[in-house]
Amino acid sequence: MSRLSTTPNAQIMTEARAALSGRWALAVGMSAVLFGIALVSAMLGHLGSLLDVLIKGPLEIGVATVFLQFIRGQESRVSQLFCGFDRFVTGLAAYLLMILFIFLWALLLIVPGVIAMLSYAMTFYILADEPGIGARAAIAKSKIMMFGNKWKYFCLICRFAGWFLLGVATLGIGFLWIVPYMMTSFARFYLDLCDLPAEIAPPAVPAEAEGYHFGDE
């Protein structure tokens, strides 16, 4: 069953800011670490691109873990950004499968690719929350969770357009604060989908067709 998010996006963002209150120094420090990793990867050229592919999935699990802790009011540490490397194969598999599925949809048109990307948006939060789940199962669960919620999530992303411009205007420095704000908001959106009662059921999709048929989006 899919769950419809009814919490207004404005409230989600307000709660995200509240969750970061008193913890901005830690959040900014985490952003700095992530930007540092991205900078090193960019400086390494083709080797950096390969490295980025290898670490992106496990790192995303760590990022999801940290910002779920923020929104839940739990203790967080910078070192937890790397907790996903304990599940390196699962994280890598999830990232590669998502990229593959999004690429296949994008071959049709840009819009199907964007819809696929929104469908898989909860994958790493699911992996962070459920240590025993596999990559394919997490992607499939994300699709179910996002059924009926993709437009609302897209609107939440669009709410950060002005913040993004502010980050650019500050030569990237502003992103040290903007990224934690965004990620905590997205984590709050995930919790909204987890906590609401089931309301609608997405159409069944054969297991062998997972990720390939646009009709279930």
Describe this structure in words.
- This protein is an all-alpha fold and 217 residues long.
- It has one domain.
- 67% of the residues lie in helices and 0% in strands.
- The chain has helices at residues 9-20, 24-43, 46-72, 88-106, 110-119, 123-129, 135-146, 150-158, 161-169, 175-195.
- The protein is globular, with a radius of gyration of 17 Å.
Q: Could you tell me the mean pLDDT?
A: 87
Number of contiguous helices: 10
Taking all Cα atoms into account, the compactness measure Rg is: 17 Å
Can you write the helix and strand succession as a string?
HHHHHHHHHH
Counting helices, strands and paired strands, the structural category is: mainly alpha
| Straight-line N-to-C gap | 14 Å
Which bin fits the share of residues in helices? 55-70%
* Strand count: 0
Number of domains: 1
Tell me the strand percentage band.
Answer: under 5%
Q: Flag low-confidence runs.
A: 197-217
What's the multimeric state?
Answer: single chain
Main sheet attributes: strand count, strand direction, barrel closure:
none
Global morphology: globular
Short description:
The chain is mainly α and 217 residues long. The protein is built from ten helices and no strands. The protein is globular, with a radius of gyration of 17 Å.
